[in-house]
Design brief:
alpha+beta; binds glycine; 447 residues; Rossmann fold; 24 strands; six-stranded antiparallel sheet
């Protein structure tokens, strides 16, 4: 029996908890989250609800529970240095130290690291702390550029020309507003192509790359509507994506490797956790959009669904717990990863009006969903005596695995439609029509 602390309480953390429970060794799960997730609660030996900002509260909870290992789901505790604090009380952590988590928390740090260590994939960029030279740089980039406020902005600090504003004059005004509000501003060339996520398990010295996943940020079918945390995602049985070639995957993997190793060179401390590169396949190769220091949400659910079920006699393929242990022990090079060669589709059910004005405290019914065919991971929902209530953000994720994406998508659609209440989801995620559009777009771009 091993005692594990899980920090976080969303659908991503529900998937982490579920994957831990499939391990060959019994896991006694202790959870510290900002809300009570009914799915995680069922799997936990103990569950504490508290603010994720309080490192001392989390560390004393972990010490009292005598946990052997901690896994951090969201970025905020990493930004606040939870990994360092747990380390001080002798608890190894899947999640980098505060210094290394800057790869997510500071856009300037991430870009400058790539430049300093000559790592491939960095787009043209410049930072501004005041207006000096700003107008001239925008003129140099032309009409296609991106404005990013530095720091953790919860996905709200990125403005893209053509999507959020038009032309240099409007862009200049917005960049100046960010500066006036106290942000350092990153201006970079706008990347055109297809986005994908390439996450890697890192133990400080070695990396194991996960299958590539494509997330869908826009709220509505056809990539319309507001940006969200991610409405759903898919991955393919060959661990690549239909619009990528082998060189693209190799390039993204190399960038993650070079980044993890450069972090160690720079600070003398290894990056232990998940390194999540958000990449864009472009006409001129793979470019890094941004780094995250944690699992993607929903991407974690794609990847974690590929770990083998708990069987008797035990399946020899390494389970998720063994990978976490190898991360903290620095032994990932000894892990012979053997994920299921299957496709995965994840779709989030969200409240009507999400993300701008979601309905909350409305009941939804998931009882008709066939949980032998799909997994349900709970996000922003409250379990009350008379049922499950919407909390206002992404409510729950429906996940299927199958031999190909088309089959997995159809399974998810059949089951997700059985959920009733004031909710919606993106019907097009994982469909052949949408994937073919992406393939065509990339072909045209590269021809
Ligand atoms: N998939 C988007 C994120 O996790 O940040």
């Amino acid at each position: 029996m091993i005692k594990v602390l899980l920090i976080g309480s969303g659908a991503r953390e529900h998937a982490i908890a579920h994957a831990l429970k499939l391990a060959k060794e019994d896991v006694e799960l202790f959870v510290y989250g900002s809300s009570l997730n009914p799915g995680i609660k069922e799997l936990a030996a103990d569950y504490k609800v508290g603010p994720l900002k309080s490192n001392t509260a989390m560390a004393s909870y972990a010490s009292l529970a005598h946990v052997d290992l901690a896994i951090v789901g969201p970025e905020n505790p990493l930004a606040e240095g939870i990994s360092d604090v747990l380390g001080q009380v002798g608890i190894p952590c899947v999640g980098p130290t505060k210094q290394l988590a800057q790869i997510e928390t500071s856009k300037s740090f991430a870009r400058d690291l790539l430049t300093e260590y000559k790592i491939n994939g960095c787009p043209k960029y410049k930072f501004f702390v005041n207006e000096m030279g700003l107008k001239e740089y925008l003129m140099e980039l032309g009409d296609n550029f991106v404005i990013k406020a530095d720091g953790l902005m919860g996905g709200k600090g990125v403005l893209v020309s053509g999507d959020h504003f038009n032309g240099q004059a409007e862009g200049l005004k917005l960049a100046i507003e960010f500066i006036k509000n106290g942000s350092q501003v990153l201006i970079e060339e706008k990347l055109i192509g297809q986005e994908f996520s390439l996450m890697s398990f890192c133990d400080g010295d070695h990396l194991i790359h996960m299958p590539a996943v494509q997330d869908h940020k826009r709220a509505l079918t056809g990539d319309k509507g507001a940006n969200t945390g991610g409405m759903g995602s898919y991955s393919c049985a060959d661990f690549s994506l239909p619009f990528l070639d082998e060189d693209d995957i190799a390039a993204a993997q190399k960038t993650n490797e070079a980044t993890a190793l450069s972090l160690k060179k720079k600070f003398g401390v290894g990056y232990k956790g998940i390194l999540y590169g958000g990449f864009m396949a472009t006409q001129t190769g793979v470019k890094l959009i941004e780094y995250n220091a944690r699992f993607g949400d929903p991407e974690a659910m794609n990847v974690l669904s590929l770990f083998s079920e708990r069987t008797f006699p035990a399946n020899p393929a390494p389970d998720f717990l063994q990978v976490c242990q190898a991360i903290v022990n620095g032994t990932l090079n000894k892990v012979k990863m053997d994920l299921k060669k299957q496709a995965t589709v994840v779709k989030y059910i969200v409240p009507e009006g999400y993300p701008e004005s979601p309905v909350i405290n409305q009941i939804i019914d998931v009882s008709k969903v066939d949980q032998a065919k799909v997994r349900l991971f709970y996000g922003s929902v409250d379990q009350k005596a008379d049922g499950l209530y919407l909390g206002g953000s992404r409510a729950l994720a429906v996940v299927a695995t199958a031999d190909d994406v088309d089959q997995a998508e159809k399974i998810v659609e059949t089951e997700i439609k059985k959920i009733t209440g004031p909710v919606f989801h993106r019907e097009d995620i994982g469909t052949s029509e949408l994937i073919e559009k992406r393939v065509k777009m990339m072909k045209e771009l590269r021809s």
